[in-house]
Design a protein that fits this description.
single chain; 186 residues; Beta-Lactamase; 4 helices; rod-shaped
């Protein structure tokens, strides 16, 4: 009877540990995504005015300079500016991924409002923030920032590994204590 109650107690402890771990993973992923969304909105809003002034003016050289200057920082994979039909400026690193505008660009143009989404393009995960650009109150295009999301999965994998090792160690210690108690108590 005592062995059964010990096994049940062990199962409860293990289940609680796994549940705690899963909740922690979910919270960490949500936190990483919120941080990414905030940083993306902050950069887009800070670039919006400069890009709106240059959009539609020939040549697009100054627009390309801004896009290249700000397009490769930290987790930012790149920036692209679209007029109503095509990309007019984009970071060089995005060219393989922008054969066609991403879905968020057409959504942004259709809604005339900011649109953001996690998308896979060309096998790579991005968080894309699309912000409408206006001139004289008229919709002229879209500013998009592309953030690499692979670091989120790397971070979650590291947490998985650390928690797995921690759980194995806890389970081992728990079993050692159970065996010691069984020997002492008979």
């Amino acid at each position: 009877m005592r062995l059964t109650s010990r096994l049940v107690a062990s199962a409860v402890v293990i289940a609680a540990s796994i549940l705690f771990f899963l909740v922690r993973m979910q919270n960490e992923k949500a936190r990483q995504q919120r941080d990414l969304e905030f940083n993306s909105q902050l950069l887009s809003e800070s670039l919006r005015e400069s890009v709106e002034l240059l959009l539609g003016h020939e040549p697009a050289g100054r627009l390309n300079v801004i896009v290249e200057r700000f397009g490769n920082r930290g987790r930012l994979a790149g920036i692209a500016v679209f007029d109503m039909q095509k990309a007019v400026a984009q970071t060089g690193s995005l060219k393989p991924y922008l054969a066609a505008p991403p879905e968020v660009v057409s959504d942004c143009l259709r809604k005339n409002a900011a649109v953001a989404a996690f998308q896979r393009i060309g096998g790579r995960g991005f968080y894309i923030n699309a912000l409408p650009l206006h001139r004289n109150g008229k919709l002229e295009g879209v500013l998009t920032t592309f953030y690499d999301t692979s670091y989120i999965n790397i971070r979650l994998a590291r947490i998985w590994r650390n928690n797995f090792v921690r759980t194995i160690i806890q389970l081992g210690l728990f079993l050692v204590v159970l065996v010691a108690l069984r020997r002492v108590l008979g």
